[in-house]
Design brief:
188 residues, mainly alpha, 0% strand
Length: 188
């Protein structure tokens, strides 16, 4: 399925490797990519929101979205497609963080980042929401930068998790918002 895409996406990844990677930027990108590892950062954020009564619904919805992204993208889709990592198939591409233990499609980092950040964007004050979305984009791009995902891996992970998160927030607003308000003015 991915054969035709691999060569075009390989060109993009080699361009990132050859033209964007820089000695000063690589340590920063490694830290950013680590924030997405196993979704730990977003789990901590979710638990922090749950602990803060005013934002408890946002924290619960983040956890629901993270769980949905995990079940669909990582447990089901990843094993259905079994796409090799780009550094395994693209000649000359190197991974800056070593071998990865799972398949490439879709990106779990992008899935987790967008699952939580879209909820935060929709339910939290605007400045916090924008910061969360920017971080989600940085985490997603870092996966391309370090050479462990194809662009479509990241794109699918981000889009599918975003759709699920929007669905969760819409259901929450229609069914439960009057009983459990976020206090954030719906992302104002």
């Amino acid at each position: 399925m991915f054969d035709r895409l691999d060569s075009k996406e390989g060109e993009v990844l080699l361009w990132i490797q050859d033209d964007l990677r820089a000695a000063w930027l690589t340590p920063i990108m490694k830290v950013i990519t680590y924030l997405g590892e196993y979704g730990w950062f977003w789990l901590v954020v979710s638990m922090g929101l749950i602990a803060w009564k005013k934002y408890r619904p946002a924290g619960v919805l983040c956890l629901i979205s993270l769980t949905g992204a995990l079940l669909v993208n990582i447990i089901a889709i990843k094993h259905l497609f079994e796409r090799a990592r780009p550094y395994e198939t693209i000649e000359g591409l190197t991974s800056l963080i070593g071998r990865q233990s799972q398949y490439s499609f879709p990106s779990g980092h992008a899935s987790a980042a967008f699952a939580a950040s879209v909820v935060i964007f929709m339910l939290m004050p605007r400045k916090i929401g924008i910061a969360a979305i920017v971080l989600a984009f940085l985490i997603s791009f870092s996966r391309l930068y370090v050479g462990v995902h194809y662009p479509t891996d990241v794109l699918y992970g981000a889009i599918s998790a975003s759709i699920f998160s929007v669905f969760c927030v819409v259901v929450y607003r229609r069914k439960f918002a009057d009983r459990f308000p976020t206090g954030a003015g719906g992302g104002s």
